């Protein structure tokens, strides 16, 4: 044995082994510290460690068989055993090996970082968390909806924990396909990730949750919760409470914290009132708070129907649409709201105005407008003071083109609840359209006092400024909102479209590149616009808004048969009613369909639609509404009819007064017959000069407006 050790020393194997350990440890540390900066995958450190481990015995064999000489690497010759002298370098190498070994022992046994999991008492180093969609391990669709609802409920409750930042649903849901924890941490800038799964067998439900340290990738805490399924909503609340209480304790270092208790209140009616107060603000944060209050009210009184209806309302308001305030798919919002509404209806023996109103909102969101109108009329007959029911009636009537009935309902809503933010925002738009600009501005000022720092008020102010052709002021206002929350889709849309209106296409693009095809159309890139619109439509084929957009793009591309296929089924066949008349006047789908029919030789069908548009214009002007947008619509109708001179005169009047959405003048398919006219070219030249002046008045740079996922909502719920 002594001879072997001596031979190892003579052949420098011991010295090489020590040097190899020191260099290997340094390499592992360098990889660990620079992996995130270099964007290396999560397994990079493990792979380097594996290569070093495999290389160790190979290096030892080479050290035994060869030695380094001034002439290069040569086979080691046999000789006398090495002497007992130890060089200074050997002491240094030995000390390095001892230090490295001590560091490894400390890391593994004292800090626990070498383990695959963690104690439930451990605190994650940070205060930001992402909640990923819970995986559905069952086969039934109902459990898939429960998985989504549970993850969203946990996310909402965690967002109410003081000092804890929670990544939004739209940001988290993109990582539902198995992305690495390090990638999630780097993208969302979070310190922890909560993931889980749901499995149901018979009446037994099992939910598993895991909390992962996003920086290191190891598991901090996990739990499995088993429940008998009797009332799925109650089970959801119970499991959410259990998960949130534990996770928030770990994240904040306070294991005793009860984060979901927003107030020391036990009265369900008071909790419901507090939830309704949060609902009125119509922001993502206030909707989350409202959902928690309603949940507490349901827990305090499991038979409180209005609390279940309130939860359904929150979920419907969190849908992604021009009238709502969230980023959830409409189909998901409906799926999640349905059980709450069903429960609410089962708990009322006599008609309830609020439950009936939420039923109407559900039908309106589902696109069943006639059912919505019937339910909402029933609600206001029970309680005429229910402002929201009048508001949703206004929207239902608008969606069918029944404008006089819609305006009456909005007046009723404002009379019933003048302090409602959603009602006031819609009323301010109607006032502006009626040229009551001072009244509109005064109303928004009052809303700003009632709801300070509310982004919806800022959007409405920007829309009013854009309508008054004060785009620089609108952009400055929207820029502040954008810097506060660059992921807000409504702010991005409003800012992007206003930038387009002053011709700042490159600055508008980052705001609009994943929302619509306006930038591609403005640049004349019709191929990209068509492919983008088709992809969006195929992803949500039932979306009316995406159907309109695709029809516009196909019309620009000259695909008239496709336009007829898309919009033809929407033609009610009589009068200015129906979905063809439920969009902004600038791009009324009825005109787009009329032009496509005329190009295909169906002049009778085209003329019938255009007569309905004439009635639409007359109806608005009879109601005191006469905006540049309506004059622009008149120009579109005349251009499709072939009345070129009159169309050019109307277009000149509209562009002279400027208006929000004026960027469409460059690509609107209905104006194709005018583009070769000298008058049109002159009009565009004047508009270019005006846009250049506006751009000079405002400092817009990508650095000022940089950030990551519609003019302000024309009709807010």
What does this structure look like?
With 717 residues, the protein is of the alpha/beta class. It contains 31 helices and 8 strands. The protein has helices at 2-10, 13-34, 44-65, 88-110, 141-158, 169-172, 181-188, 232-252, 268-281, 284-300, 305-317, 330-347, 353-366, 369-382, 387-399, 403-416, 421-433, 437-450, 455-467, 471-484, 489-501, 505-512, 518-523, 526-539, 544-556, 560-567, 589-599, 603-622, 628-641, 644-657, 678-696, and strands at 66-69, 72-75, 128-131, 135-136, 165-166, 192-201, 204-213, 219-228. Strands 3, 4, 5, 6, 7 and 8 form a 6-stranded mixed sheet that branches. Strand 6 and strand 7 (204-213) form a beta hairpin. Helix 12 runs antiparallel to helix 13 (353-366). The model is unreliable at 80-86, 105-123, 255-263 and 700-714 (pLDDT under 50).
In summary, what is this structure?
By secondary structure, the chain is α/β, with parallel strands linked by helices. It has helices at 2-10, 13-34, 44-65, 88-110, 141-158, 169-172, 181-188, 232-252, 268-281, 284-300, 305-317, 330-347, 353-366, 369-382, 387-399, 403-416, 421-433, 437-450, 455-467, 471-484, 489-501, 505-512, 518-523, 526-539, 544-556, 560-567, 589-599, 603-622, 628-641, 644-657, 678-696, and strands at residues 66-69, 72-75, 128-131, 135-136, 165-166, 192-201, 204-213, 219-228.
What topology does this entry show?
Elements: H1 2-10, H2 13-34, H3 44-65, E1 66-69, E2 72-75, H4 88-110, E3 128-131, E4 135-136, H5 141-158, E5 165-166, H6 169-172, H7 181-188, E6 192-201, E7 204-213, E8 219-228, H8 232-252, H9 268-281, H10 284-300, H11 305-317, H12 330-347, H13 353-366, H14 369-382, H15 387-399, H16 403-416, H17 421-433, H18 437-450, H19 455-467, H20 471-484, H21 489-501, H22 505-512, H23 518-523, H24 526-539, H25 544-556, H26 560-567, H27 589-599, H28 603-622, H29 628-641, H30 644-657, H31 678-696
Parallel strand pairs: 3-5, 3-6, 4-6
Antiparallel strand pairs: 1-2, 6-7, 7-8
Helix pairs in contact: 2-3, 2-4, 5-8, 9-10, 9-11, 10-11, 11-12, 11-13, 12-13, 13-14, 13-15, 14-15, 15-16, 16-17, 17-18, 17-19, 18-19, 19-20, 19-21, 20-21, 21-22, 24-25, 25-26, 25-27, 26-27, 27-28, 27-29, 28-29, 29-30
